[in-house]
């Protein structure tokens, strides 16, 4: 309960009173009111047949339930959706948990081949699904993020007792900042402890620091490395007719090199570094993203040369990034960023843009990434990166490293881990 109250306080700070009321109503409706579905209760045969028809499809080798509160149609199209898409392409039937606040799915809806969006909060529908899955002899798995605070250990044990394998994606440092709460939610801690003491669980790690933590607790059994990645082909085309808003057009007219970042604006963002870069008066610094916490408003005001553009949908963001001269990740080095595999660097690679980051271990792995170990060096690397903008060999390196980190390969690492135990 304390964690939920802490989360509500953060939502109030982020969205104000009216925004808070809207989100609170949507949350209560999705998590409590929508649990009882008379539509399903009075039409059980209809929904049972729908589920049976889905399961009759023979074009899959295994069934995966994605159970984490990361809706499919949220503007931040990231690892969950990319992994689900690529699992589906590799003969996995994926039932992806929606959040009704973003996906507008009250029951079940086909999204694409082998991907079905499903409202697991709908108790009657969930019960029907589980009854039909019990009749299936194909391998079945429940998959979730280490940051999930919804499912309990008891929920996981119940799945496992019904023949499901458990895939635990350990994707970030376990921290309250990432959870958006004052303290780490107990459900997150409980699941972490369960996983570290149960070698039957399949663990997927995204960074070296996380992998070391797992090995320390349970060795290398049922462990696979799968960093974040990129949909390479998606970043090869752009909307030629995309209409930019006047604010961005005005930035382009300034003719200063554009240094861009897109992603969360949070406590791990190095605001002081960005302000120092702006003070050189050489660049237009453009920031896209959500204010994840109160840190943005506490650190940035109306500084000259810094332009906050707010969030953009994943599908259109690349049209803005195309106009950047250098793409950056200016993060503070702490426990969170030491264990972070930034999705952005792989997208930056596919965009063929020079990349400058602070000294994150997962960024050091790639030759195309210029690393600034301190503020002065970061600023120097920006100048160095600008000289590489049209360097043919450097662009070829960016392209090579992007292709090597396509999401298809990240999903294959998961499949290779679990299929070794499949009959």
Percent of residues in beta strands?
Answer: 15-25%
Q: For the record, what CATH class of the largest domain applies? A: Alpha Beta
Runs in which pLDDT lies below 50 for 5 or more consecutive residues are none
Number of strands: 14
Distance between the termini: 42 Å
Structural class: alpha/beta
Radius of gyration: 22 Å
- Strand order of the main beta sheet, please? 3-4-2-1-5-6-7-8
| Number of helical elements | 19
Tell me which CATH architecture of the largest domain applies here: 3-Layer(aba) Sandwich
Say what the CATH topology of the largest domain is: Rossmann fold
Categorize the overall geometry: globular
Count of all domains: 2
Give the SSE map.
Elements: H1 2-31, H2 38-41, H3 44-56, E1 62-66, H4 79-89, E2 92-97, H5 100-103, E3 108-112, E4 115-118, H6 123-133, E5 140-145, H7 153-161, E6 164-170, H8 176-179, H9 186-196, E7 202-205, H10 208-218, E8 223-225, H11 246-253, E9 258-262, H12 271-279, E10 284-288, H13 295-299, E11 306-310, H14 314-321, E12 326-329, H15 335-338, H16 343-350, E13 355-358, E14 369-372, H17 375-386, H18 392-403, H19 407-419
Parallel strand pairs: 1-2, 1-5, 2-4, 5-6, 6-7, 7-8, 9-10, 9-12, 10-11, 12-13, 13-14
Antiparallel strand pairs: 3-4
Helix pairs in contact: 3-6, 4-19, 16-18
């Amino acid at each position: 309960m304390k964690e939920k109250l802490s989360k509500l306080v953060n939502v109030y700070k982020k969205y104000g009173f009216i925004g808070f009321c809207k989100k609170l109503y949507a949350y209560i409706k999705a998590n409590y009111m929508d649990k009882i579905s008379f539509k399903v209760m009075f039409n059980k045969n209809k929904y049972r047949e729908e589920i049976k028809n889905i399961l009759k499809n023979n074009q899959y080798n295994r069934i995966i339930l994605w159970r984490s509160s990361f809706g499919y149609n949220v503007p931040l199209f990231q690892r969950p959706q990319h992994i689900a898409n690529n699992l589906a392409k590799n003969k996995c039937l994926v039932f992806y948990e929606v959040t009704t606040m973003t996906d507008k799915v009250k029951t079940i809806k086909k999204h694409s081949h082998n991907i079905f969006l499903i409202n697991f909060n709908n108790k009657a529908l969930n019960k029907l699904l589980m009854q039909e899955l019990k009749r299936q002899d194909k391998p079945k798995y429940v998959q979730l993020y280490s940051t999930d605070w919804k499912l309990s250990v008891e929920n996981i044990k119940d799945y496992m007792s019904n023949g499901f394998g458990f895939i635990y994606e350990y994707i970030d440092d376990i921290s309250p900042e990432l959870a958006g709460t004052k303290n780490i939610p107990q459900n997150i801690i409980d699941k972490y402890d369960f996983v570290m003491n149960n070698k039957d669980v399949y663990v997927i790690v995204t960074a070296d620091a996380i992998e070391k933590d797992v090995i320390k607790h349970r060795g290398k059994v049922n462990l696979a490395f799968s960093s974040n990645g990129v949909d390479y082909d998606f970043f090869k085309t752009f909307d030629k007719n995309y209409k930019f808003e006047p604010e961005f057009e005005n930035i382009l007219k300034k003719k200063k090199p554009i240094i861009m970042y897109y992603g969360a604006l949070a406590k791990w963002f190095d605001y002081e570094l960005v302000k120092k870069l702006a003070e050189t008066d050489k660049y237009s610094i453009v920031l896209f993203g959500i204010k994840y916490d109160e840190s943005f408003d506490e650190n940035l005001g109306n500084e000259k040369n810094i332009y906050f553009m707010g969030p953009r949908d994943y599908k259109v963001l690349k049209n803005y990034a195309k106009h950047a001269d250098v793409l950056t990740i200016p993060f503070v080095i702490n426990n969170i960023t030491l264990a972070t595999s930034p999705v952005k660097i792989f997208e930056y690679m596919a965009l063929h843009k020079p990349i400058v980051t602070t000294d994150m271990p997962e960024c050091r792995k790639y030759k195309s990434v210029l690393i600034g170990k301190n503020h002065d060096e970061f600023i120097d690397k920006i100048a160095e990166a600008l000289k590489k903008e049209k360097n043919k060999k450097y662009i070829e390196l960016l392209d090579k490293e992007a292709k090597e980190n396509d999401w298809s390969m990240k999903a294959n690492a998961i499949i290779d881990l679990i299929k070794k135990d499949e009959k």
